[in-house]
Design goal:
With 252 residues, the chain is an all-alpha fold. It contains 9 helices and no strands. The protein is globular, with a radius of gyration of 18 Å.
């Protein structure tokens, strides 16, 4: 089970690597869907697509179960505040990897659709519900704050506390640099997504809230956006490589 859960980090790394590659493609004039669904489509298009999709699905399910069990059973020896924070973080990670697994499964059985359309449809439906506007602003703000937290983790290198870091030397430096760059890029991406949700809600255009792909494409349309998008793409690739290293080094 632990081996499969560790493989889930590697799958996350592969997906982030592909999203970063698509972002760079967009920055250089190409086409693509720069989000998890676009990355999964890239996997599905390979000759061994079904094997890649189902094996990745199994790994993500294993890691989602592992994180859920941490949220329920672990951290009982910590002070109350730390225990609550750790449990909430594990629960959030369980949801993220469960979502990855669902996306992988949907494409494996041929019913997958792009996340940007799903996000837009969800936002439109939620905005029509009682209290939906306030809830969307809260969700967008929470995602944006999560992005800021990721950036701070990168700058402080706090991610190293969750790893069995290699001995001092080139491998340790490489993991540290990949983590810093990757967490900063992931933070920027989440910040863009959160801001896009808030702006689209405030302007009463919920259909414009299209998730990560929409956020990155909005970045592309800003002054010097092509360079910024390419930089974020490189950072997401670094985060992907870091996640692959995390598969081996994570303290489970």
């Amino acid at each position: 089970m632990e081996l499969m859960a560790r493989a889930g980090y590697a799958v996350s790394g592969l997906l982030h690597f592909l999203v970063g590659s698509i972002a760079i493609r967009l920055a250089t004039g190409g086409q693509g869907q720069a989000d998890v669904s676009g990355a999964v489509q890239e996997l599905a298009s390979q000759q061994a697509g079904p094997i890649l999709l189902w094996s990745s699905f199994a790994a993500c399910v294993a890691l989602a179960i592992w994180q859920a069990s941490d949220a329920v059973f672990d951290y009982s020896n910590l002070p109350k505040r730390d225990k609550v924070l750790r449990k909430l973080k594990a629960a959030g990670q369980a949801v993220v990897f469960a979502a990855f697994a669902l996306t992988l499964a949907s494409f494996a059985i041929g019913s997958g659709k792009d996340n940007s359309q799903s996000t837009s449809d969800f936002t439109v439906a939620l905005m029509k519900a009682p209290g939906g506007v306030v809830l969307l602003i809260v969700i967008g703000a929470a995602v944006a704050i999560t992005g800021i937290v990721y950036g701070i983790r990168g700058i402080r290198k706090s991610f190293e506390k969750r790893l069995r870091m290699p001995a001092p030397g080139t491998p340790r430096t490489a993991v540290s640099v990949l983590g810093v760059v990757g967490y900063l890029a992931k933070g920027v991406a989440l910040l863009l997504v959160g801001l896009l949700v808030v702006v689209a809600t405030v302007q009463s255009h919920p259909e414009e809230s299209t998730g990560l792909d929409g956020g990155l494409k909005a970045l592309r349309d800003q002054p010097f956006g092509l360079y910024l998008l390419a930089a974020v793409g490189i950072g997401l690739i670094a985060y992907g490589v870091f996640q692959v290293a995390r598969a081996k080094l994570a303290k489970m």
